[in-house]
């Protein structure tokens, strides 16, 4: 079968390419609108971290936005009216405060009809907060749903009124990580890297977080405590893991922090058997940046790849077809596909269906109600808001991938457990880390 081959560009080259992007996919036509001169325009705002520590989520966005703009080039027909679509994309700079400021500007100054955001609670939560405050329909993705709901102050007695979010939650890690751990003989002690941020807080919650899943599978969590993003010295955490005989590592560090931790772990003689790490290992720039090929064998929860059984609602494009087209595009030159891009694009797929179903794209209440009824296939997977774990939430399934370096010096990941993804082929079992 076809593996998830990633010919990874050096991290520095990828960062240069990202820094060179003017807001991703922006149409520089002086009119600022795809249909100047018409009053029937639907304005969609899109906020994402094009630069900064979270930029790995969006390096495929220039191509994705070009595809979306092409899909919307002839507008959206709703009833007897064809509406032009204007997309205002903005870079949060991986800064939560800036994401909130941009959201407020798009709502109050640009008067968007729909606002969307993606990639971690640091981007998503402040955008949702502005949409809830101003009564603006909102779609978001690529952040664990518990960190969005509970991290933003929502709950059973306070549901989101204007917002819809899709991604997997802590269960996407907690249900799948043990399936990989069970493949290797260990003492079942799991050291965790949970930072002092929205994700870390959600994972640390004793009732709704990660620990209950691990304990139900027979594993013991060793939590050295929260650390600040950007930490340069992980010695105390490493010593805690060594003292407790930790043989498995899990967590959700940002990419630079995991590279620092993993490099220092090797230097200090900490050699776990398994590492299943979210966020940092999702994207192809992180693993090659770890020195001495220490990325070999690192594993992660994965939600998309070339063999996943999905297709775009726009034109039926499959994951492999998307990857081939991206690789051949000018926007993809020097970069490698990543699994966040299809979900970023799925925001626009869901938006189109919701706008059409609303009947009137300017009727905010009708648009929110239309999203409530959506159950559709997208390039990023099935998005079902009718049966989520919380109002306004749709979840997607996850599997387990493991990174390896080929004889040709290329980095790729392979599926080592299908998790809860239906009909996903498995390449091989999980392999123990080699030090």
What does this 3D model show about the protein?
Helix content is 31%, strand content 19%. It is built from 14 helices and 17 strands. The strands form four sheets. A seven-stranded mixed β-sheet has the order 3-4-2-5-6-7-15, sandwiched between helices. Strands 1-17-16-12 form a four-stranded antiparallel β-sheet. The protein is globular. The relative contact order is 0.15. Mean pLDDT is 91; it is low at 5-37.
Give a short summary of the structure:
By secondary structure, the protein is an alpha/beta fold. Helix content is 31%, strand content 19%.
Show the helix and strand layout.
Blueprint: E1 4-5, H1 11-19, E2 41-48, H2 61-71, E3 76-78, E4 81-91, H3 96-108, E5 114-118, H4 121-134, E6 138-141, H5 145-149, E7 163-166, H6 170-174, H7 177-181, E8 189-193, H8 198-204, H9 211-216, E9 220-222, H10 235-243, E10 248-251, H11 255-267, E11 274-277, E12 299-302, H12 319-328, H13 340-358, H14 364-372, E13 375-378, E14 381-384, E15 393-394, E16 399-405, E17 411-417
Parallel strand pairs: 2-4, 2-5, 5-6, 6-7, 7-15, 8-9, 8-10, 10-11
Antiparallel strand pairs: 1-17, 3-4, 12-16, 13-14, 16-17
Residue-averaged pLDDT? 91
Percent helix range: 25-40%
How would you sum up the global shape?
globular
Number of strands: 17
Strand % is 15-25%
Largest sheet: 7 strands, mixed
Distance between the termini: 29 Å
Structural class of the helices, strands and pairings?
alpha/beta
Strand order of the largest sheet: 3-4-2-5-6-7-15
Rg over CA atoms: 21 Å
**Spans with pLDDT under 50 lasting ≥5 residues?**
5-37
How many distinct helices? 14
């Amino acid at each position: 079968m076809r593996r998830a081959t990633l010919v990874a560009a050096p991290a520095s080259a990828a960062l240069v390419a990202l820094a060179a992007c003017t807001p991703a996919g922006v149409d520089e036509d002086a009119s600022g609108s795809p249909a100047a001169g018409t009053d029937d325009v639907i304005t969609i705002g899109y906020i994402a971290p094009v630069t900064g520590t979270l930029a790995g989520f969006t390096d495929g966005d220039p191509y994705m936005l070009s595809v979306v703009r092409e899909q919307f080039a002839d507008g959206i027909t709703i009833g007897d009216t064809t509406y032009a679509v204007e997309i205002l994309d903005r870079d949060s700079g991986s800064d939560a405060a800036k994401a909130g400021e941009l959201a407020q500007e798009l709502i109050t100054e640009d008067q968007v009809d729909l606002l969307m955001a993606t990639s971690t609670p640091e981007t998503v939560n402040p955008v949702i907060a502005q949409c809830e405050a101003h009564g603006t329909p909102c779609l978001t993705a690529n952040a664990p749903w518990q960190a969005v709901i509970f991290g933003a102050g929502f709950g059973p007695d306070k549901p989101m009124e204007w917002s819809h979010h899709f991604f997997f939650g802590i269960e996407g890690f907690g249900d799948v990580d043990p399936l990989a751990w069970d493949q290797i003989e260990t003492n079942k002690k799991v050291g965790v890297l949970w930072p002092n941020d929205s994700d870390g807080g959600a994972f640390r919650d004793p009732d709704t977080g990660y620990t209950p899943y691990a304990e139900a599978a027979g594993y013991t969590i060793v939590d050295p405590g929260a650390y600040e993003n950007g930490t340069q010295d992980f010695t105390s955490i490493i010593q805690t893991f060594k003292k407790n005989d930790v043989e498995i590592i899990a967590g959700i560090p940002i990419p630079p922090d995991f590279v620092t931790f993993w490099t220092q772990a090797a230097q200090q003689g900490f050699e776990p058997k398994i590492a299943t790490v979210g966020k940092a290992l999702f994207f192809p720039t992180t693993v090659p940046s770890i020195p001495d090929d220490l990325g070999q064998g690192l594993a992660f929860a994965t939600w998309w790849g070339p063999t996943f059984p999905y297709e775009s609602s726009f034109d039926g494009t499959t994951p492999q077809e998307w990857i081939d087209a991206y690789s051949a595009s000018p926007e993809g030159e020097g970069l490698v596909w990543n699994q966040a891009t299809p979900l970023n694009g799925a925001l626009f797929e869901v938006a189109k269906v919701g706008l059409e179903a609303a009947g009137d794209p300017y009727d905010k209440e009708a648009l929110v109600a239309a999203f409530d009824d959506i159950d559709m296939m997208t390039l990023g997977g099935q998005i079902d808001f009718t049966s989520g774990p919380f109002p306004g939430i749709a979840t997607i399934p996850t599997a387990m991938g493991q990174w390896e370096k080929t004889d040709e010096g290329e980095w790729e990941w392979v599926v080592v457990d299908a998790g809860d993804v239906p009909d996903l082929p498995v390449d091989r079992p999980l392999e123990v880390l080699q030090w």
